[in-house]
């Protein structure tokens, strides 16, 4: 006898879902929100986002309450006491510049790379020995991958687009084109050595330097990486030095040296051997692949995402990759699990789950403009994984209303982790989602921006049939720069479907 049959046998009625509510999209002109979408923002999650709290007239927590005060010591204000008190040291923010060696100053360089935080990926923190990182299609042990279509950097950033880009090196204006090799093989990616006039446009030099750095750090052993990362004479250092000197000849020469070395390591099977020992993908590599796919597809048409109507369920917003990676860690998702994103926008989180975790990943979106971009990004993402020689999990993007989709309904029955960015969902849609949760399997985790369980909720005889009783919820903090609509910290919720409390309460009722 099933659990809900057991309740009915005891005289209680079964938990019945309310009638579903069909949603329709109302498309308006571009939003006038002050939170503009950045064209080169890193790939992030999409869906249902309000404006920042101050724009909505919301007050911060405890805004109306008295501020706590700390009692002062009677002698704390005396000069002698202040002299004895330890002084707080002000620590300056550190930035990693694309710099040259000490005898060749790089002060003339006009861009910096933020120093990477020490962050591990989900799979690294929770070793998943079933995860296979190397793509057998892109990186067979004895051969290189053939040619395949993808969006080259030169298709976006080139001297032909003189209104957006200028030559990066004055000594090399007639020879700006070059190719960059990736670990997965193929003919390489075409670049032109240009600089963006607008900081939000693609920067080919930055992309090349970061690809070289990431390949050297994560595809090679320490000894193998020394010719690339040596602080005095490595290829990565020489590339930065060439940029600082404004020497296109030097930059081109170092890229060619990198290409030859990577091709040799790939053809000898060294890269394949190293990847076969990995069971996780470092977050900087995840972010680089996602950023490349996003910048070559979504960024070019990002203005179309501003077409929504405030006050509806179809408001666009994004969760950033490092928050998503933290969510993966908190939910302990593995490569043999199923991930579902309801309201998946342009597909960023669906693709991140497939890449970082290697799991079966699903998304559903009903806004046509976001769906169009999601399909473009998915195709580019698959090509990028092949370039990098990475095996990602399968990704599936469904176009339509997830409340009404039979395909999504079937997938939810297998889901291990479900993401719902319900920050600006209407109450009726949240109730429809609660009804859908009845079909989730025991132990499925539901991640949301707003809790589906009211504060201080308790199971009683009167609310015995509420779907809320099936959820155990925990609130987690996130910090600044984790979502696209505000820089402020906030919180999210992880609910687990667990019927044990409801079973125990029903048993006590007799």
Q: In a few lines, what is going on in this structure?
A:
With 510 residues, the protein is α/β, with parallel strands linked by helices. Helices cover 31% and strands 12% of the residues.
Characterization of this structure:
The chain is of the alpha/beta class and 510 residues long. It has helices at 3-9, 79-84, 122-125, 204-218, 222-229, 235-245, 248-267, 270-276, 283-295, 321-331, 348-357, 368-388, 406-412, 427-436, 500-509, and strands spanning 95-97, 112-114, 165-167, 177-180, 189-192, 194-196, 338-342, 360-365, 395-399, 417-420, 445-448, 471-478, 490-497. It has a seven-stranded mixed beta sheet, sandwiched between helices. β4 (177-180) and β5 (189-192) form a beta hairpin. α9 runs antiparallel to α11 (348-357). The radius of gyration is 26 Å and the shape is elongated. The protein starts with a helix and ends with a helix. The relative contact order is 0.16. The model is unreliable at 1-124 (pLDDT under 50).
């Amino acid at each position: 006898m099933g659990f809900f049959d057991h309740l009915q046998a005891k005289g209680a009625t079964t938990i019945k879902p309310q009638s579903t509510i069909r949603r329709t999209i109302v498309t308006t002109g571009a939003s006038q929100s002050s939170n503009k979408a950045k064209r080169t923002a890193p790939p992030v999650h999409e869906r249902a986002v309000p404006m920042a709290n101050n724009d909505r007239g919301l007050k911060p927590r405890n805004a109306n309450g008295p501020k706590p005060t700390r009692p002062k010591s009677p002698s704390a204000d005396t000069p002698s006491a202040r002299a004895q008190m330890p002084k707080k040291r002000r620590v300056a923010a550190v930035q990693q510049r694309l710099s040259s060696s000490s005898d060749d100053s790089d002060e003339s360089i006009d861009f910096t790379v933020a120093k990477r935080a020490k962050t591990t990926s989900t799979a690294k923190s929770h070793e998943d020995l079933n995860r296979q990182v190397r793509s057998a299609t892109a990186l067979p042990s004895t051969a290189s991958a053939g040619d395949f279509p993808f969006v080259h950097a030169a298709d976006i950033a080139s001297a032909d687009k003189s209104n957006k880009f200028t030559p990066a090196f004055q000594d090399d204006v007639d020879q700006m084109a070059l190719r960059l090799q990736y670990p997965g093989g193929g003919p390489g990616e075409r670049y032109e050595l240009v600089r963006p006039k607008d900081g939000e446009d693609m920067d080919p030099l930055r992309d090349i330097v970061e690809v070289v750095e990431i390949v050297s750090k994560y595809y090679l052993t320490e000894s193998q990486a020394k010719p690339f990362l040596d602080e005095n004479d490595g290829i990565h250092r020489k590339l930065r030095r060439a940029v600082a000197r404004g020497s296109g000849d030097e930059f081109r020469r170092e890229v060619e040296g990198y290409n030859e070395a990577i091709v040799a390591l790939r053809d000898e099977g060294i890269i394949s051997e190293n990847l076969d020992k990995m069971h996780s993908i470092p977050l900087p590599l995840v972010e680089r692949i996602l950023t490349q796919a996003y910048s070559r597809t979504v960024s070019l048409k990002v203005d179309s995402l501003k077409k929504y109507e405030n006050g509806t369920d179809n408001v666009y917003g994004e969760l950033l990759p490092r928050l998503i990676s933290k969510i993966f860690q908190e939910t302990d998702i593995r490569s043999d699990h199923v991930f579902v994103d309801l309201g998946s926008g342009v597909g960023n989180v669906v693709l991140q789950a497939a890449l970082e975790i290697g799991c079966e990943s699903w998304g559903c979106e009903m806004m046509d403009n976001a769906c169009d971009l999601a399909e473009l990004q998915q195709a580019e993402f698959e090509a990028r994984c092949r370039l990098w020689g990475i095996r990602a999990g399968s990704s599936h993007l469904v176009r339509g209303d997830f409340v009404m989709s039979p395909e999504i309904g079937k997938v939810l029955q297998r889901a291990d982790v479900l993401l719902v960015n319900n920050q600006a969902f209407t109450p009726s849609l949240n109730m429809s989602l609660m009804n859908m949760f009845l079909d989730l399997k025991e132990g499925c985790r539901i991640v949301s921006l707003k809790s589906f369980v009211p504060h201080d909720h308790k199971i009683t005889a009167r609310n015995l049939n509420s779907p809320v009783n099936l959820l155990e919820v925990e609130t987690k903090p996130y910090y600044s720069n984790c979502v696209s609509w505000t820089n402020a910290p906030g919180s999210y919720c992880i609910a687990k479907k667990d019927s044990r409390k409801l079973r125990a309460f029903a048993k006590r009722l007799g």
